[in-house]
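May I ask you to review the protein record following this short note?
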Amino acid sequence: MKTCVTCGQTFLLSDDERDFLKRMAFTFGSITIPLPEPTRCPDCRLQRRTCHRNERFLYKAESSLSRKPMVSIYEAGALWGKDYLVYGHDEWNGDGWEASKDNRTYDPARSFFEQWADLHKAVPRMGLIVLANENCDFTTGTAYSKNCYLTNSSEYCEDCYYGKLLQKCRNCVDCSYIYDSERCYDCVGVYDSYGCTSLAFSKNCSDCHFSTNLLGCKNCILCSNLRQKEFHVRNKPVSKEEYQKTLLSFQNSHTAHEALTKEWHEIERSRVHRFANIVNCEACTGDEIENSKHCTECFDLTDSQDCLHAYVGVAIKDTQHSSNMYMKVELCYDILGAIEVYHGAYCLFCFYSQDLLYSEYCQHCKDCFGCVGLKHKRYCIFNKQYTKEEYEKLVPEIIDAMRRRGEWGEYFPAKNAPFGYNETLANEYFPLTKEEAIAKGFLWRDLTDRMPDVAKVIPAAQLPDSITDIPDDVLNWAIRCEKTDRPFRIIKQELQFCRDMNLPLPRLHPDVRYDDRLAWRNPRKLWNRACMKCQKGIQTSYAPDRPETVYCEECYLKEVY
C-alpha cells in the first residue's frame, strides 16, 4: 500500500503494475530507465490528467494566423496571462508555420516543468481537436464525422447533434455513450439500436421508449430488464393496438413526456440492477466494457485488452492509467488523448507516434521528449533537433534532474492547464466548487452566457406543448431554460429532427440536458459489497450506501431470464 501525496488516501500498487512500469522502460543508448512508482492514487492521477481536457465549452474566436473568425475551445483571456496562439484546424496542419522554430535549449538550472510551460504557452494550438471531419465546425474531439453539431469525443458519425462519445451513429440527438445507432433521442449507454427515445443501457433495440436495460427488444415502453420482448408496456405484454395507443398518448406532447420521464425515473430506482455493464468480456472489472479481456478497474472500453485504470478507449492494449484513447494505442502510461500511439508516457493529445515522453500535440513523431506541436520529427527535446547520440545522452541527464526535483513520473501540473477546472472533463468526474478547485491548485473560469442576437426571447414554459404547433420562426427565438433561465436556441436540423420523430422541443438548456444524461451513469469507482440476493462478494460502481437493489451476474441473469 502507498499513500497519495495529494489526498492522503492509501492505494494499492500491485506487483503486476510494478512489472508494467518496468516493461514501460525507455532506452537511451546503453541506459534503460523504467518508469517510477506513482505518488498519487488513481483518482488523483485521473483528475490531474483530465483537468487538461475541455470537451464541451466552445467560444467564438479569431485565428492568430489568418485573423479569420473561428470556433475554439480556448476562451479569450488566458487564465495565466498572455493569450495562446490559436490556429484553425487546416492552418495548424498546414505548412504556414513550424513548431520547431519555437525550440528551447534545456537549462539544467531550471525545473523541467517551468521550461515545458514556457514552450507550451508559446507554440500555437489547434482551436478544435478534430480530424478529417466535414461540416462539423462546432465539435471537438471528433474524427471522420459529417454534419455534426455540439458533439464531442465522437467518431464516424453523421447528422448528430448535442452528444458525447458517439461512435458510428446517424441522426442521433441529445445522446451520450451510444454506439452503432440511428434515429435515437435522449439515450445513454445504448448499442446497435434504432428509433429509440429516452432509453438507457440497452442493446439491439428498436422503437423502445422510457426504458432501461433491454436486450433485443422492440416496441417497449416504460420497461426494464427485458430480453427479446416485443409490444410490452410497464413490463407486461400488450397487443399491437394497445402499444400504439400508449405511444400516441405521449408522442408530440411535452406535458406527457414529462409525466413519463418521472415514471421512468421511479422505475429505474426500483428495478434490480446488474452489478456492472460488462458484456462479452473475459476477466474484466469496472463498468461499461464490451468485447474486451483482462481489463482491470476500467471504464468505457471497447475491443481492448490487458489494461488497468483505462478510461474511455477503443481498441487499446497494454495501457494503464490513461484516458481517451482510440485505435491501436499500445504500451502507454498516464496519457490523455491518443490515436495510434505506441510506447508513450505522460503525454497529452499525441497521434500516430511512438516512444514519446512528456510531449503534447505531437503527430507522426518518434523519440521526442518535452515537445509541443511537432509533426514528423525525431530526436527532439523542447522542440530542438538533436542527433541520435546527443538525444540519448541528454535525456537521461534531464530525467536525473527531474528525479532530484520530484518531477519525474508526475503529470503536467494543474497550474499549466489551459482551462478553468469547471471547463474540463475533470469537473465531470470530480465536481468541485470554485473555492474547492482553487484550494486544490486548479484554475477556474467564471463562465457567462452571451445573449444571442434574436427576434425575441421567451421562457420555455411559453412554448407550445405540441411540436405541430411550433412555428418555423422558433429558429429566431432565444428560449430561457426552465431550470436555469439560461438562454438557448433551436437549430434548424434539431427542429426538423423533432418534427420527423414527433417529439416536443426541449425546454432545458443543452448543458442541463448534457448533465442530466451524465447523471444516469455511476462514478468511475469500484466498491466491494455483497450481492443483495445471494450475498456473494462483488466489485461494483454502486456504492454500498446507495438504495438500489444490486445483484451479481448469476443472480441478475436468473432475474431477467
Summary: The first helix runs from residue 15 to 23. The chain is about 20% helix and 30% strand. The CA atoms of residues 323 and 336 lie 5 Å apart.
